[in-house]
Amino acid sequence: MVLDMGTLYAVAAIASAVAGVLHLIPWLTGRLAPWAAWWGLGHIAVGGSSLMVAIFDVKSVAMPVFIPNILSVIGYAAVLQGVRVFERPQARAAPLLILVAIAAVPLFLSRDPQAFAGRIAYLCAVRACCDLAVAYVAVRMAQRQGLQNAWLMAFLFGATVPLFVGRAWLAATGRIGSTLLGPADDLASWLAASAIAFIVFRGFSLLLLDAERSHRSLADLACRDALTGALNRMGLAQLRQRLDGQVAVMMIDVDRFKALNDVEGHVVGDTALRLLAETGQMVLGQRGSLVRTGGDEFLGVMPRLSHEEARALADAIELRFDQEIGRCTALAPRPTLSIGLAEGAIADGFERLIAQADQAMYAVKRMRQGNRRAA
């Protein structure tokens, strides 16, 4: 089967340009974050480079040969930066721009139209490095952020790495052929055609990731209390489905919360609730989740923790809240926490554990009220 390389380069140019425009326009209208600008401009640059190759044979003196080559390097680097910014919005562009400038120097100096094999080997090596870096960032996002579509991106970019490496090796050993365009059926051309096939499909992979991330953010918002960021009752229901075995729960209530609202206002009361949520989740960490069940009541859910371990965490939450609440209010006596604990098997009934923790919390509250009256 004979390949028409000129047509394939034109297809790659059109696909990259379309992907670039469809990312750049939403960024310009404020619908996408800055990662879309890098990704869009990168694909437009790659498409422009492929279009130049499709229209002008790079061996021709009609066009300086370094222009499409340098444009290709800039495009691939911009695509890589787009993925980096998508993963971490604060990712700096300066180090990558320095590497691009360094990588462009040999291409700028190599102007002999007949020495195109060496430039192809160099460009394929640069492209392989960029695609490998994108695949690495995609795997990292899949593992750290749980984005399942990142595995697809890793595959689409990782698959072209051996193709570019193989083409670079063929070019370096003088087996690239006598022309880039026109009919061809050698191994180097098939490697190029295979890489172009992946390039055509992967231009929209970051949009899939953005859609997945947005969907997860909306789902997370639906499961969290708007004021404190703790889980709400819907979040508790989802958490309940993942629980098995032993679990410890703590019911937390803010003492004198009504007095705080009445004397200093609801703004201070809201601040106290946010402080409790931040304190509770900080102490629990990965060992448990905090749920706002209503008003000033919170529920701590700690899978596979013993009663003693749960008690230590409850004491830590109470101590830290007592240390920090003074910054929110001058009310005397200051608000404190009453915490009740229960521990048992989920199979025996999660609601029963919550009821036991609630009873224990009210027992602590009655004991403290009795002590204050006695005092």
TrEMBL record:
Transmembrane segments: 6-28, 35-55, 61-79, 91-108, 120-139, 151-170, 190-209
Keyword Transmembrane helix annotated: yes
SUPFAM superfamilies: Nucleotide cyclase
Zinc is among the record's keywords: no
Uppermost EC category: transferase
Domain of life according to the entry: Bacteria
Segments forming domain GGDEF: 245-375
Pfam families from the UniProt entry: GGDEF
Catalysed reactions listed for this entry: 2 GTP = 3',3'-c-di-GMP + 2 diphosphate
PROSITE patterns: GGDEF
Keywords assigned by UniProt, alphabetized: Membrane, Transmembrane, Transmembrane helix
EC numbers on record: 2.7.7.65
Full protein name: diguanylate cyclase
